[in-house]
Amino acid sequence: RLAYGADYNPEQWPRETWDEDVRLMREAGVNVVSLAIFSWARLQPARGAWDFAWLDEVIDLLHENGIAVDLATATASPPPWLTTEHPEILPVTASGGILWPGARQHWRPTSPVFREHALKLVTAMAERYKDHPAVCAWHISNELGCHNIYDYSDDAARAFRGWLAERYGSIDVLNDAWGTDFWSQRYTDFQQILPPRQAASHANPTQQLDFKRFSSDALKQYLREERDILNVITPDIPVTTNFMVMGETKGMDYADWAGEVDFVANDHYFVPGPQGVDELSFSANLTGNIAGGNPWFLMEHSTSAVNWQPVNTPKKPGALRRDSLTHVAHGADAVCYFQWRQSRAGAEKFHSAMVPHAGEDSPIFRSVAGLGRELESLSDVAGSHRSPASAAILFDWNSWWASEQDSHPSDRLRYKQEALDWYSAFLALGLRVDVVPSAADLSGYALVVAPILHAVPAALKGRLEDYVQNGGHFVTGYFSGIADENDHIWLGGYPGAFADLLGVRVDEFGPLLDGESIQLDNGATATLWADRVQPSGHDVEILARYTTGEHSGDAAVTRRAVGNGSAAYMGARLGAPGLAPVLADLAASAGLSSELPAELRGAVEMVVRTDGRTDYVFLINRTDTAVDVTGVEGAPLPGWESKLDPRSVSVLTRRAAATG
After folding, report:
1. 26-68 pLDDT per residue, tens
2. Strand-pair category, 434-437 with 391-395
3. What does the longest C-alpha to C-alpha distance in the chain come to?
């Protein structure tokens, strides 16, 4: 069956509460909890002193009640005695400030002292619980990099130099890659190199980009060190850590990390706003594709309000269920929350939980228990895979990092927002689309959209050209194809790497001032960016032109046929509403059509999981009004309605296409 549960923090509560917890867990259908995530100070109250008795009792109690344990290694936050004895493990900011204890995750990813103590704890945990039948998985640390991804300490400097020496081999190769003849930055020895600490002006762009790569790799290496200990001592217990594919969290290249864990796990928190529902779906979609289409684990989300936004509003009725089932639709085989019981003290005491401050006699707990029953009715879905769509949005961490660096044409550009706008446009048209890492195999997709694909190594350039030559339909847009992996410009005019493929040239970038806009002849409005696109051949079709200002008459959107494929360029930021009509044309040319009846397109998101015999079709009401989905092929599961209330979900079954 699908897993269901939460982070459980029994150390925050008196012993008599634990029995009440397991009673309510059984009532809610909870069958797994993540345990000991922030317990280092309890487990090791002093150097060489250990206290596992309380954790032994909790794990035994959970096991007796049929609840499995995703056991954390407890290394997420070092205890006060360790930071007092070794303040050199504390992270350092770019300006030289120290991130002091008092919150969480106050450790340097490259600190040898921290690693020594943390890995001793991991070893002790693994040895003690290696044979306990309740332990179903290891949970390494917690949200690695959430607060300490960028450390500029001397430990980081030493590790950065080693990483650079391995990447480049010689200082001359590094000088070429970094373009150090600019501003007299040429190095003669790796020992001269520092992290991009606060400087008098803009730091070297490639130095900044490499430091982002290094920082992701440093945490990945730390993840490996914990994992390797666990694999030796407990080879039969799978290992994971909770990614944070959500919002603007961008420091960790999760597509690169996915191969380091036995199954992918993710934390996601709903951010209210016009595209809040779309962003949730986008992140779940990307997580499912980072996992290679295999089932994954939703480690954390919220039952209602969080505590870290400027204004923390409760979820509307039905949203708890919709949000959870959207993750399941995109491949999650586990639905878990932060946290089980809402804290009465500490920084997260106003964060919602499965058992709120009001207790079991509350709307939240009744919703939690109802969802538990529904997840049990979906047990056949467990183990099935995401059914691929015919279109994809390419997502690339290097382009995210590089495109938003300083000293660029505009600091208003947001990589994730542009990708999300395209995703919203697909949803508005009722078209299924996958969000895939840039290394993914694209051969099965009829249409591939690559928004702001800024950093394009020669190998990626060649892959995309081959994709089009083989009949694929490729779409990219402004500030794409601009630089290679070293952040060096592709010369010859923009969009650089893609200029020949697209058959267009842009002589100067078109960033727009705040409040400035330009109209297009298809009714769309460009804001933030508007390139004046010059077709370089007669085989380029102009799909839209600008109609106002100095841009009037210039091309804004183009498409070039290439054999049986095509390559299109979106020169302006149009937002999701402006992208939808252009996408409709591009999708039709690629042979794509919606599987939804016309009246449901935009109102309902369709996601499909399959086990090869049966398709499980999730229909998610994206709106605040009721919709009727009886026109969609398939039979509702028992107890699931064909009329969707606002923010509701229904699941249909149908015979998988593979079996006829």
Report:
1. 999 999 999 999 999 999 999 999 999 999 999 999 999 999 9
2. parallel
3. 79
What are the E-state strand segments in 363-503?
385-386, 391-395, 434-437, 447-450, 473-477
The pTM (predicted TM-score) of the whole model is 0.97
- Residue matched to tokens 């373009």: 179
**Mean pLDDT across the stretch 241-255?**
97
User: How many angstroms separate the CA atoms of 243 and 245, rounded?
Assistant: 6
Pairing of strands 473-477, 447-450: parallel
Distance of alpha carbon 168 from alpha carbon 190, whole angstroms: 11
Angle (CA) 159 105 128, round 5°: 95
Give, to the nearest 10 degrees, the angle between helix 171-178 and helix 205-233.
120
Measure the CA–CA gap between 345 and 355, rounded to whole angstroms.
Answer: 15
Please compute Rg for the chain using Cα positions. 26
| Class of residue 372 by CB neighbours under 10 A (exposed 0-12, middle 13-18, buried 19+) | buried
Does the domain formed by 600-659 have CATH 2.60.40.1180? yes
Query: For 3-164+217-383, which CATH class?
Result: alpha beta
The CATH label, of 3.10.310.30, 3.40.50.880, 3.40.50.300, 1.10.340.30, for the domain at 391-589 is 3.40.50.880
Q: Can you give the pLDDT at residue 658?
A: 53
Task: Report whether 340 contacts 27 (CB < 8 A).
Answer: no
Distance CA 552, CA 136 (A): 63
Work out the end-to-end distance of the chain between its first and last CA atoms, rounded to an integer number of angstroms.
Answer: 27
Please answer whether residues 365 and 354 qualify as being in contact, where contact means their C-beta atoms are separated by less than 8 angstroms: yes
E strand or H helix that includes residue 320? helix 319-329
Q: Is the pLDDT of residue 660 over 90?
A: no
Question: Can you tell me whether residue 87 is helix, strand or coil?
Answer: helix
Token couple for 186:
């040429």
Residues belonging to the active site? 143, 300
pLDDT band at 657 (very low <50, low <70, confident <90, very high): confident
Two tokens, residue 607: 């996601």
CA pair distance 589, 601, nearest whole angstrom: 19
Q: Which of 201, 55, 199 is nearest to 129 (CA)?
A: 55
Q: Give the domain ranges of the chain.
A: 3-164+217-383, 391-589, 600-659
Asked if pLDDT for residue 659 goes beyond 50, the answer is: no
Q: Residue 215 carries which DSSP code? A: H
- Is a pLDDT exceeding 90 seen at residue 527? yes
Burial class of residue 110, CB neighbours in 10 A (0-12, 13-18, 19+): buried
- 619 phi and psi, to 5 degrees? -115, 115
Whether 391-589 and 3-164+217-383 are alike in CATH topology: the answer is no
Pair type for strands 32-35 and 68-72? parallel
Residue 388, helix vs strand vs coil: coil
Asked if 546 contacts 491 with a C-beta cutoff of 8 angstroms, the reply is no
The phi and psi torsions of 179 (rounded to 5 degrees) equal 60, 45
Contact present, 321 and 303 (Cβ < 8 Å): no
**Beta strand segments in 353-482, E:** 385-386, 391-395, 434-437, 447-450, 473-477
Helix (H) or strand (E) holding 267: strand 265-267
Sign of CA dihedral 576, 582, 586, 589: positive
Beta strand 332-337 with 296-300 is parallel
